[in-house]
Amino acid sequence: MDGIHDMGGMQDWGRVHYDPDEPAFQAPWEGRAFAMSLLSMNRLTGRNLDAMRHALERLTPLEYLKNGYYGRWLLLSETLLTDSGVIAPGAVDARARTLRGDDVTEPPDVELSKPDYTATGPGSLRQIDDPPRFKVGQQVRARDMHPTGHTRLPRYVRGRIGTVEHIQPASVLPDTNAHFLGENAQHVYGVAFDSKDLWGEDAEPFVMHVDLYDSYLEPAS
Amino acid sequence: MSPVPAPSDLPVELRTEALESILVEKGLVDPAVLDKFIKTYAEDVGPLNGAKVVAKAWTDPEYKARLLADGTAAIAELGFKGPQGEHFVVLENTPTRHHLVVCTLCSCYPWPVLGLPPGWYKDPAYRARAVREPRALLAEFGLELSPDVEIRVLDSVSEVRYMVLPERPAGTESLSEEELVPLITREAMTGVAKVKAP
Predict the structure, then answer these.
(1) B1 — pLDDT class (breaks 50, 70, 90)
(2) What is the model's pTM?
(3) Which candidate, A211, A32, A47, A65, places its Cα nearest to that of A118?
(4) CATH superfamily of B45-190
């Protein structure tokens, strides 16, 4: 989906905030949100890494930006847990208000609704028998597609032509795996784009390397 | 699919406490297990791992060749693997070629060798600008590259995880592998800095 998460090339963010001595977690709650997210992703909800990333994308732009990195992780955990019926919608809000001292009624539990979906192997990499569709050195065009669901095709390369530099290990397709519609294991290509083909003639000269799934590409000619 | 949680005026700290309280009450989460995860990523899995990989590559040419040919296997030789480390690619920075790593879509990062991503890597400014004006961005980090250095930016949008093998600085020829390790920063292994001699 074309969301706030797809930040490549956006302007006017200013300077990067840099603190060389920051700890892994800036406050204790960040560590707890991180750890609960790891458990929420697979073990508690039957969902997966791609669904987790999509849960981030489903936050409104305002919520995405306002809560910071681990705030987003906490909210994505709530989303995955609610999607799978492990917690009821509104349960976290109600519990938080109870902890704060408000007199609220907590919502009753709901029925579990974990996806009926089993990964065919650990992680995301898979062995596939089909030979790669594209060769190293071949020109390819990133498809100009705008799915409403999950994708890992960044906006800034859509419609642009690049050159295949590497054949990466085959992998499950995030676009379908995030929605439990199948793994669609396929080849992944390391594609190099000229910065001027992405950002115009006045762009800084550099090579932009993006690893793109077979479904994201078409022959350039 | 149910909607995402509605925007809330509740601080995220309080929401975190609330979620843990619910999951513990349901018997789904053991707070001691959370403590263990937190300790692992706060103390054990960090850029020291990557620094050991780099120092070994600088002092052992055969290891360096293996590292550049098959990063995953060479990194596993030192015992480093785990989540966000299914397939490593290690890229060598040289006097004429400079690699910079980013993830524009979230903040994918090679956890087993560099730990959890630092704040600057997660900063929207970094995610937005690394793929559009890397030279200007690097200059702000204090790294001014000569115009004849080729910059190559890697966007970690698939499950390939990138680590930079920085240049060994001049003046460190007499240092041992162990003495080199503390010089090597996560910034150098992501490509926003060079390693400095002591």
Answers:
(1) very low
(2) 0.96
(3) A47
(4) Nitrile hydratase alpha /Thiocyanate hydrolase gamma (3.90.330.10)
